[in-house]
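User: I'm curious whether this sequence folds into something compact or stays loose and floppy. Could you predict its structure so I can see for myself?
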Amino acid sequence: MNKFKQILLSIIITFIFVFVAFVTYNLAEPKAYDFMTKHFLSQKIPFDKYKKVYGTDDIVLVVIDAKTAEKYRWPWKREAYCKIFEYFKYVDTKLIVYDSIITTLDKENTTSDQKFFKTVSKFDNLIVGFMPRFAEWQDKEYGEKIDKAFENKFGLSVNDKSTKTPDLYQSMMAFPRAYFNVVKNIGSVSILPGFINGNISAWAVDEIYRNHEYIFRYKGSYYPSFALKAYLMLNGNPKIELTDKSLKFVDKNYEIKQTKTYFQTITPIKFYKLYDSGYSHIKYSAVDIMDSYDAIRAGKKPIINPETFKNKIVLVGANVPAGTGLNDVKNTSISVNHPGVDIQATAIENILYNDFLKIMPTWINFILTILGMFAVYACIRICNLQKSILSALIISSLYLIFTAICFYFGVVVNVITPIVMFILTMILAYTHKFVLENRSKEKVKSAMGKFVSEDVMKRVVQDIDNLGLGGKRANVTVLFSDIRGFTSMSEQLTPQEVSEILNEYFTEMEPIISKYNGIINKFIGDAVMAVFGEPIQDKCHAKNAVKSAYEMLQKVKELQKKWAKEGKPKIEIGIGIATGEVFVGNIGSINRMEYTVIGDTVNLASRLEGYNKVYKTKLLISPATYQEVKSIVDVIKISDVQIRGKANKMDIYEVLKVL
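Assistant: Here's the prediction. I'll summarize afterward.
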């Protein structure tokens, strides 16, 4: 049964740990990830690395912002974009990424559309945006044509070795035919919220953008994001191999670690510190580019020299606060209003310079958590309360410092889950320790109760902090009982037989004394000393002492019959009872003390017990005791007895019967 309880307890504790870990990991860990990302993961990769790899300093943004919208009222005619793109004909840029989607024609400004499409057709290094959708095509026949056309023109050749899962996307936002015909390169602008290292449940409970989908499958074909398309164009379109854990570029001996979810393969975005502008990349207002283009055309000095963008990757996007429909911001780990075009630029920067977060494997996170839990548990078992709590706090603090260092260097580890496990370990460890200590105390109390009175032991335990020598004066009744002829009897029996008789005798006497609120103060050989009135408070201590003595005599008669059948010797006892004031408390030395009572009343009770031999009686009580119990007893008075140690004679009483 005990083994079953232990197994059941182990299962329950394991369930608690797993449940708390699951809830914490899914609800709190994403928030901790965001906090650490925002406050510790804020370093740009060195500029010399940019120059070494691509010969460029940075990725820059051209944004249709509030300043632009103030001068060029929205909605624009599309030919307004021509100024932005034509401006870049004056400089050799690496790439131009147009973070926008065109799905309809401007029927009221067809000439403007034609100019825009003609401009787009001039750029071989331009990537435009498109977006897949979750909903199915309303017109399936039309959708199949679009899907086929996109696959033939923009689909990627991929060696897919990953586990096949259902397609997440069922349709796309189709281009107008005229736009489709002139576009040479596309990249998906789609970014889905949630997820942290494959944590699907986080997707369901928040709308925070943390990851990037570099490649996705759609109707059997593969399409790139802006970031992947940028990498492919700048690196000669290397061969792609896709697995559940990585996106590999075979020709480049380069791979991106990815996490496989049910629908996607995703990679955490490594965000960078935002400038005062609210962007993590250098940002230029589109109106300055447009005005610079006009100035160049007019033979004037431009506001921004085109050489500024030489050998740079330029992202063109929109982010106009409220009211224009151009407020493209997302809630990310580092900002609640993170411009979408800056997120795209960050994803491009990550893949171009292999500047990714390194996700700590699950098994390492597990080992770190277990080691921390063992450390906390060990401290609790070894140290006292204050030191163990301090140790647990130190362990938790050191772990937090460790996680901050990891994030600083781009390594993602679990933050909150281990800390919660440490705290839970501390709670359960203290609960376990409390249970064990209580069990130990109960065992000690049970054991000590066999050597001292249980009530004395309880008094000691309850006031253990104030334990010391001393006591008080109190009115009590003291009972002494003794076996007649014990010495001669013990000479005739073996020590084992004597022990058996005494043990059985004391075993029968102790419950009777306890029944009447008395405590056995000590066993003295074959004698018993009991006290009534302390430490158990009892106003009727004299009556209870006499009742207890009378019942003890009756029990001895029963034992005599039993022992006679067993061939054991007959024993008789004598009992003396006295009531009066005594000193009650701890007597002895600082290192060894005993709870007892001392005083004239104790001596008198002992003398009365001895006088039973003189008067051939069994139960004698003092005058003070008689005054307390005379209403419940039949007695014979023995007058003018000279008690040893007393100057004056006194009357004593033999109790014949208790009424």
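Summary: Residues 445 and 461 are 9 Å apart (CA to CA). The chain has a mean pLDDT of 83.
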